[in-house]
Specification:
single chain, alpha+beta, Immunoglobulin-like, 6 helices, 19% strand, elongated, disordered N terminus
Length: 278
């Protein structure tokens, strides 16, 4: 079975302080001499279960793993590949997935219009546009977590490894904090303030998600019923929609519930009413 960490020609590799470059032929040959860890680890108790906790774990790995490369005798190509994989996964979890979830209601509305709506005009399907990749981040082959977990096993098998390193890299069970706050709350805590936005007055929703991945919000204004507003994983959320009638203040109502693994859940918080002016 081929070494899953072995870079291929054309694959990007993060060289950290060494700068961006493709692996050289010598590096490829050196990587071939490194042992390939057998098997895969589908789940590890040091890796958080919630997306909001996974992102800091990955960022911590990206920031610190290179500092242990020499001390633990880690193959540079393996270190670089783990950072490249973690960087891309952070992008997917923090930007791409959020955009996909926000796009979902638009896609569902288009399907409802197509199948049971009415009107003379052809249905225009919404087009999903993925967020651009951050500078220095590139797509990687499948199996990111399996490769990261294999790399963790390689770190732990190194002669220079100890619990201090493990805690610093968050790869020991004691380094993971279990968040039980979500059990004690059936809905998020939300506060709405009217603030000055880029194009006029806006409503700022500050929320506490009690250990959940994010919040799912709906809003009602004018003669409409409650409709999807946003999915947000980081407080606060700024509602910068323009007024229904330019220059005329309007009453807006908001309600939020928890959002985890692509699904709204829990109870709605109490409805919050504010007046947004020009």
């Amino acid at each position: 079975m081929p070494n899953p960490w072995l870079p291929r020609w054309g694959d990007p590799a993060v060289r950290l302080d060494r700068g961006w470059k493709y692996p050289t032929e010598a590096e490829l040959l050196a990587a071939k001499t490194q042992p390939t860890l057998k098997g895969t680890m589908k789940k590890q108790n040091y890796y958080p279960t919630r997306i909001t906790d996974q992102i800091p774990w990955l960022l911590n790995w990206i920031l610190k793993i290179a500092s242990y490369e020499t001390k633990l005798g880690l193959p540079p190509a393996h270190v670089d590949a783990s950072v490249a994989s973690a960087n891309f996964l952070v992008y997917v979890l923090s930007q791409w997935l959020t955009a996909v979830r926000a796009f979902g209601p638009d896609a569902t509305a288009a399907m409802d219009l197509l199948t049971s709506g009415s009107g003379p005009d052809p249905v225009a399907l919404p087009v999903f546009t993925a967020p651009p990749l951050p500078a220095g981040v590139a797509s990687v082959p499948p199996g990111v977590l399996n490769r990261l977990f294999d790399m963790v096993a390689l770190v732990k098998a190194s002669p220079g490894y100890d619990d201090i390193i493990g805690k610093d890299l968050l790869i020991v069970e004691s380094a993971v904090t279990t968040n039980t706050a979500a059990v004690d709350h059936s809905s998020p805590q939300v506060k709405i303030d009217v603030v000055q936005g880029a194009h006029g007055k806006s409503a700022k929703a500050t929320f506490i998600k009690h250990g959940h991945a994010g919040v799912y919000g709906e809003s009602k204004r004018g003669t409409t019923d409650f409709e999807f507003l946003a999915i947000d994983t980081n407080s606060p959320y700024l509602d910068e929609r323009p007024l229904l009638v330019a220059g005329v203040p309007e009453v807006r109502q908001y309600r939020f519930r928890f959002w985890d693994k692509g699904t709204p859940n829990g109870d709605w918080c109490a409805i919050i009413t504010v007046t947004v002016g020009p």
